[in-house]
Design a protein that fits this description.
This protein is α+β, with helices and mostly antiparallel strands. It is built from 3 helices and 3 strands. The protein has one domain.
């Protein structure tokens, strides 16, 4: 028995067998070819999860863009109303209302442009009950159609956001 052990140890110490890995040297005792299957499994799992992950990320980006649009049109409506009730606006002549409305619309469009949002004058509606003379409320309504990133998959899926602001004319 003793002689047999010595022979086995001599075989393991042989210079040609020193770098050879044995079954118990591999991780978890698996054959090297079987470890390759784990890599393929990881790749397949990644391929299945990746589209869902990208949808989630693009959804977050779209939500951020929509929130930016809401803030920008709210600021545009506020700036238009502030311009309309500001000092120096001559409201004594009713024929000037159209000119004043155009100036108010231009102020709102310019404010939206400061936030990299392209509005047309038609997207801004200025209204005032009766004649818009002192102690009346001036109302500015701004609307914008937001187009999400996924408009490629769902055509014509724009969402219309509307914000308004009312201020009293002094």
């Amino acid at each position: 028995m003793k002689g047999r052990r010595q022979t086995k140890e001599k075989l393991n110490d042989h210079p040609l067998r020193k770098g050879v890995k044995r079954r118990h040297d591999n991780c978890h005792g698996l054959h090297p070819l079987r470890r390759r299957g784990f890599r393929a499994q990881n790749l397949i799992e990644f391929a299945l999860i990746f589209p869902v992950l990208m949808l989630f990320i693009f959804g977050i980006v779209d939500f951020g863009r929509a929130f930016h649009v809401l803030i920008a049109i709210s600021n545009a409506a506020r700036e238009g109303a502030r311009y309309g009730v500001g000092p120096g606006m001559d409201r004594s002549d009713p024929t000037l209302f159209i000119t004043l409305d155009n100036e108010i619309q231009a102020a709102a469009v310019q404010e939206a442009g400061n936030s990299n949002l392209k509005l047309a004058l038609a997207d801004v509606v200025v209204s005032c009950p009766n004649t818009c003379i002192g102690e009346q409320n001036l109302r500015v309504v701004v609307s914008y159609t937001f187009t999400p990133i996924f408009d490629i998959f769902i055509p014509d899926s724009g969402i219309t956001f509307v914000r308004d602001m009312e201020m009293m004319i002094p």
